[in-house]
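Side project, low priority. Logging it here so it doesn't get lost.
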Amino acid sequence: MTIVDEQGRPEPPVAAGEAATLLGFLDFHRATLAWKCSDVDEDGMKVTVGASAMTLGGMQKHLAYVEDWWLSVRLHGNEPQPPWDTVDWKADRDWDWNSAAADTPAELHQMWQKSIARSRELTALAMAEGGLDRMAARPWQDGTAPNLRWILVHMIEEYARHNGHADLLRESIDGRTGE
C-alpha cells in the first residue's frame, strides 16, 4: 500500500528491496516537482531568483528532456523523442531551459508527464530484461556504460538538486514554502 503525504506525494517504501526503494524515491522527487509547479501561472513559470536564469518552466522542460535522454536514449538506445530530435544543441546547449518561456504551463506539464510515463514503461522493460544490472545500450565516449541502477540513482540526484532550486523559485513567486 502506497502512503501519500499531504502534498500528494507517494512516500518511498521504508523496508523494500533495492529496486522498489530507488523507484519510490524517484517517484517522490517527481511528485515534489509537480507540487512546486502546481497552480503557478504563466508569469510565475518564468520567474527567476537572483543572478540565475533558472525558471520553474525551464526546470520542467529540462527534466522532461532528462527523462528521455537517460531512460530512452541512453538506456535503450532509442532516438530522441520530439521535440528533442530536432533541436540544434550546438547552437543552444540550454535549449530546454531557454525555450520553455514560449510554452504554457499546461504544455510544459503535459510534456513532462508524457516523458515520465514513457520513462516508467522503459524502466519496467529494462527491469524485465535484466533488472538493475541491465546495462545502458549507449555507452559514454570512453566505452563505459552505466547500468539501470546508476541511471536511477542519477535521476534521483537530478530531481533532488532541482527540487531545491524549485523551493527557492516557488517561495519567490508566492511565498509558499515546504520541504
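Brief comment: The chain is about 55% helix and 0% strand.
Revisit when time allows.
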